[in-house]
Description:
Elements: E1 2-7, H1 13-33, H2 38-53, E2 55-64, E3 67-74, H3 84-101, E4 105-112, H4 123-132, E5 139-146, E6 163-167, E7 174-182, E8 186-188, E9 193-203, E10 210-217, E11 223-228, E12 232-237, E13 243-250, E14 264-272, E15 276-282, H5 289-297, E16 302-308, H6 331-337, E17 344-348, H7 358-369, E18 373-377, E19 399-406, E20 413-414, E21 447-452, E22 456-460, E23 466-473, E24 476-481, H8 487-490, H9 499-510, E25 520-526, E26 529-535, E27 544-547, E28 553-556, E29 559-562, E30 565-571, E31 576-581, E32 586-591, H10 610-614, E33 620-622, E34 629-632, E35 640-641, E36 644-647, E37 653-662, H11 666-686
Helix pairs in contact: 1-2, 2-11
Amino acid sequence: MSGQVIFDPLVAWPVLYAAAAVMLLLVGLSLWRGLAGWWLRGLGAIALLAAIANPSLQNEDRTPLSDIVVLVVDESASQSISDRPDQVAEALAGLEAEIAARPNTELRIVTLRDGQGDEGTLLMSAVAEALAQEPQARIAGIITLTDGQLHDLERAPDLPAPLHVLLTGREDDWDRRLVIENAPAFAILGEPVALTLRIEDQGAAPEAATAQLLISVDGEEPQPFTVPIGETLELPVTLPHGGMNVIQFNVPVEDGELTDRNNAAVVQINGVRDRLRVLLVSGEPHPGERTWRNLLKSDSSVDLVHFTILRPPEKQDGVPVDELSLIAFPTRELFLEKIDEFDLIIFDRYKRRGILPAIYLDNVRNYVEEGGAVLIAAGPDFASADSLFRSPLGEIIPGRPTARVIEEGFLPRISEVGERHPVTEGLDALSPPGEDGAPGWGRWFRLIDVTESAGNTVMVGQDDKPLLLLDRVGEGRVALMASDHAWLWSRGYEGGGPQLELLRRLAHWMMKEPQLEEEALWAEPDGQSMTIVRRTLEDSVGDVTVTLPDGSEVVVQLEQAAPGRWQAEFEGPEIGLYRLTDGEEEAVIALGPSAPREFENTIADGTALTPLVETRRGGVKALEEGVPDLRNVRDGRPASGRGWIGLTPREAYVTADVTVTSLLPAWLFLLIAASLMIGAWLREGRR
């Protein structure tokens, strides 16, 4: 119960102030004139003003509220190293016991764990959220159990009470860290790309000038290097293959280090080709010749060399030989000396005419077996005696001509194998199907009758005869398009078709783009999870064995998601490098950031929090020296000292009932005022 005097004037306060001024003037005038009752007049004026002010006594029935201490326990990843969990547990038990022994004090414990992604330690966000849930008038103190490494200092709230930081860790802690300063996301195949990295020691590290660095590409055996500590190194790396290259750097763990979680880093670089060199050899001119040229010239990354036979040798028109060409075409240089510089050779309706000797074509065959690619767009000449099949190239062509050319309209269709092959997978979805379920593209009107002799038939024509055949020969690839009417799709005949997409996929498959491999295993990362994908031409696949960063293995069963495509979701338990294999294909994938923010600085340090702590005169204490005692301090006084930290009692309360009682009735104030006035007149009348 507490009471206080309150006023509820009968008039506005300005009027009351004006009346008081007038009465003061009159009393002063009485004193100046020497009236003996001036003081009685003054007391009467005061009584009259008190009556107008209407004083009352207000009594409140108050229920005291307890003080609240907010304790934020940092359990982020950096708090799990060394003996920090034991330090936190011991400090938490001690603080709970001390606060439980204090009268009228409650403890609110907030546990801070790692968030999603690589956000780091969001300590101030946790403090702000905890304070938002409690009445500010009851907060007696904020205590944090942390290593002092946080990543959201800018989110610090206004503090209603002292903030104290109790630091984990030891004075002699030290750690060695591998830092990747710069790593590009893309690099050109065959050209070195510069990675910059640094090895640094933190804390009370022993003297050392060099350290061993292990480098591994795509999970292969690591290669050791001796590098200086504390210096930025520029490392030239040449990617071994196209697509994603996973490069792992690792520094062996030394005795006494806090953790090995920052001794390794994984860099993923996508290898891309700088320029694709294509040789297009055209035979007899036809409407589809421009299709190939336009396709290849539309890609700025393609260097095209086009060799066209416009005048066959057997033509006799009397034109002098030295006037047939302005520049002699360098066939020997292209087909013998520099053939290995081309990524793809296309024969478009070309037949043997004596222009390219058999030794040139035999060299093209060797070029394919050693890793090159040849695409044959066949016309009627492919079924004749001058066919390329009857040259040294016939040994690698996957289709044998029957000498028959079918000149009838037919609708190209994707074969059963083609539905699983990446070149033709989902191609029919690009053209809305008709009412009968057939592809919604237009017809072609010429098909060279061939029989499959090798490889896979991914598209068929009339009577399921092979239309597009793909094959691997040695280290290279060969494709046979048994028709020269693909250009009808580009012209929009009967609605056209996905001619550009088909030819683009076909060219990129032949140039061994990883995204178009028909037998492939890869993983698509998303944070700490991955989607494992297996593409195959087979009807079934085996289970995938996932090797975790710690060396343990997990077997994952795949489910069919589409023809030729099997996949499964896998949640990675930790950050690091994962190896996948199904016995035939292998893949390497890195989950999580290359260098987690939680382990950028592992030495406990309260420097970043000191300015915030000093705003309310709190303290930064090392738990290595013991759990500090709790003391009461007044607001604004130092809240930290040797071996203790202070809490500010708030003496908050809630009012249960309020009683208001007038000090005196108004008539009694008037009676007193009148009596004093009469007394003044009587005193002055005697004189």
